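User: I'm new to structure prediction. If I give you an amino acid sequence, what do you actually give back? Let's try with this one:
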Amino acid sequence: MGRNPSKDECERGEEMITERLLNPIKARIRLMVGRALIKACEDGKVNISLLADETREDVDFFQQYGFTSRPKGTVGAVALFVGGSRDNGVVVASRGEDKDMGVQLEKGEVAMHSSFGSSIILKKDGSIVIKSKTGQPVRVEGDVNVVGSVMATAEVAALCVDAAGKFVDAAPAVHLSRHMHASAVGPTSPPTPGT
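Assistant: Good question. You get back a string of structure tokens that encode the predicted 3D arrangement of the chain. For your 195 residues, that looks like this:
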């Protein structure tokens, strides 16, 4: 007849059984969240790379309601895997690694920006700065209702953009700095800056 195991042997045996049972659960928990690199993006799906040589294709790319982006180049991301299954992933956040996307913000400020140089910044003083890539116009489609003053550091013109959005400096264009009116004694002179 065999001897009965000691108390220590019983405890070690229980620990081994518990460890064996918990190891698969621990592995799934470790695989639930991971850093990823987005390699390609198309139609709300991304191809990502994860751990050494681990890739996943056609992973859902969830973005905030009302905001959509299509990353350019390699972009850092956070991926979640439902139940720890690497076959059931979703990318929930991405971060621009592009040096052109550097927007300097003060505490509390918010920016929406692209890697092409355009941005909208909600400043801490309550102002909003809309900036296009150097030399590119900011295009507004639809009516604009300004409640307050309109100030400009350059020419103000009307009826000077064709249907394609290109600047046209010909009739019926009206330039504020060259604008004149007919009068009984002939046309008025253009406005004098600063008056």
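You can read the tokens as a compact description of the fold. Here is one thing that stands out. The two ends are 114 Å apart (CA to CA).
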